[in-house]
Amino acid sequence: MDYAALDPIAVRTLTNPLIPPSVTTTRPFLAAELGGLNGQGNARSVARLQSVVSHGGAIDGRRFVAESTVERIFQVQADGVDRVLGTPVRFGPG
Fold it and tell me: Taking residues 38-58, what's their average pLDDT?
């Protein structure tokens, strides 16, 4: 990404903090439980997790989330031009 072409607020937002690969590839970082930051998996594990949503909250006879929660995942929470990115975005809780 060419940070020089971005507005200063965008640079501060997208690089705060800027964590280098020399940190993000260490065993302690990978082992840490940092919500919204260091989720990791392979294609199979990501597909398995997403199958909870695509199957209404239950897979293999085990319910992980209520069907009403799955429905809420798709409700639009924000829709418009992002003030940092300057492009239209749409977000929901899922």
Answer: 91
